[in-house]
Design brief:
Blueprint lengths: L1 E6 L8 H10 L4 E4 L22 H4 L3 H10 L5 E8 L5 H14 L4 E6 L4 H6 L7 H17 L5 E2 L4 E2 L16 E4 L4 H9 L3 E2 L2 H4 L4 H14 L10 E2 L6 H9 L4 E6 L4 H17 L3
Parallel strand pairs: 1-2, 1-10, 2-3, 3-4, 4-7, 7-8, 9-10
Antiparallel strand pairs: 5-6
Length: 284
């Protein structure tokens, strides 16, 4: 089972280059960065974790620039968006960004995607909140066409362009793994429809049990004609509990990620040290 870290990078936190080097030296597999372009002062949608929105949501840096910095100073560490918000991204521009970072990292990019929860933020980008899921699907389908075709075109309800040319194509063939983030069952269905993996969060799996939900996901994949092995599961924000991590390992979870707070090195290194020991106990 692979282990990665997810972090909100800010101007006041440990920076991506030194953290990436530390993670690679310790043998961790990946670094993930969330995305928020901005946070509106209004709030139509409650913060999913409850209470006021924490400051790093306002301060977070652009994920692609952060990840490219991390990739530049490493050779093995994979870098992933955790998650990029398709409802807030132009598909032609994003296709170019993804291909570029995948080329520059020599195939170490993981494209974690999602549709977002913050209605005000999404609507500021001109997206109708109620139809965001169909919009995101069309944008993903359009990007897949751009990455795999010499002269792609796409004609949908929300995305529409005639034949075009765009290079570079991704280093990955046919394109970087598209790992769809979000809760069961809706995001799980999207992962099966157009993804190469699923990212649920550990805290949202606890109610029904990690094993129960993952079994349901695999059954759902088979019913849709997908091989569950082609849809590896990455669980985000797992706790520092060895027994729970061993259970994830036993049921075939492909990857877990632990959360690093938006802090300086002195606050992060003890957390990384503990996870290094957990990784050793898991046989990694």
């Amino acid at each position: 089972m692979k282990i990665g870290a997810v972090m909100f990078f800010t101007a006041d936190s440990m920076q991506p280059a030194p953290l990436a080097r530390v993670l690679e030296e310790r043998g961790f597999e990946s670094l993930w960065v969330p995305e928020h372009t901005h946070i509106p002062s209004s709030r139509k949608t409650p913060y999913p974790a409850g209470g006021p929105l924490i400051r790093p949501y306002y301060d977070i840096m652009d994920p692609f620039l952060v990840l490219n910095t991390a990739a530049t100073v490493t050779t093995k560490l994979k870098v992933g968006t955790g998650i990029a918000l398709l409802t807030q991204r132009d598909p032609i521009v994003t296709a170019k960004v993804v291909s570029t970072i995948d080329q520059l990292s020599q195939g170490r990019f993981l494209f974690g995607v999602g549709n977002g929860w913050n209605q005000d933020e999404i609507e500021n980008h001109g997206t109708v909140f109620e139809s965001r899921h169909k919009l995101a699907r069309e944008r993903m389908e359009a990007m897949q066409a751009i990455w795999t075709q010499e002269e792609p075109e796409y004609h949908g309800e929300f995305v529409n362009f005639d034949k075009m040319k765009q290079w570079p194509k991704p280093f990955h063939k046919p394109y970087p793994p598209i790992i769809v983030g979000g809760a069961f069952p809706y995001a799980a269905r999207r992962a099966i429809r157009y993804g190469n993996g699923w990212i649920p969060r550990a805290d949202r799996l606890e109610k029904d049990g990690v094993g129960v939900i993952i079994d349901k996901f695999r059954v759902m994949a088979k019913e849709a004609g997908r091989d569950p092995a082609s849809l590896p599961i990455t669980i985000f924000r797992v706790p520092e509990v060895l027994d729970q991590l061993k259970f994830c390992q036993e049921i075939g979870v492909d990857r877990v990620t632990f959360t690093l707070p938006a802090e300086k090195e002195d606050k992060l290194m003890p957390i990384i040290d503990r996870w290094t020991e957990l990784k050793r106990q898991l046989g990694g």
